[in-house]
Amino acid sequence: FPTRRSSDLTFSKQGLELMKKEEGFVDHVYNDAKGAKSKYNTETDHTVIINGKVVVGKPTIGYGHLLTLADIKTGTYNNGITVTQATVLLMEDVQTAVQGVQSSVKVSVN
Asked: How far apart, in whole angstroms, are the C-alpha atoms of residue 56 and residue 33?
C-alpha cells in the first residue's frame, strides 16, 4: 500500500453517501439521545421547545447534524430542512472531522 501524508487524506463521495445512508435523513429537529457528546460543542444538552414540541438532550437535524446553541436561539431550523440543506450541513461536519484528522495525525498513513 502506498503511504500518504495525513494532509492528503480526504473524504470520498462514496463515504459521504454511506454516511447519509447510515445516519438517515430527518427533516425536523429531534433528540439524538444515543449521540455522543461532542468535544467541539459542549453546549448541546438542552431542553428546547420547537414548534410546540419539547426536544430534550441533543437537538439534531438532517443527517445527524448536532444543533449549536446559536441554531437553537435563532430558530434556524424550526421550520425543518431539505435534503439539499442537510447534505450541505453533513459536508461541513465531515470537513471539520477531516481537518481534525489532518491536524492531529503526524505520521504517514497507508
From this structure: 8
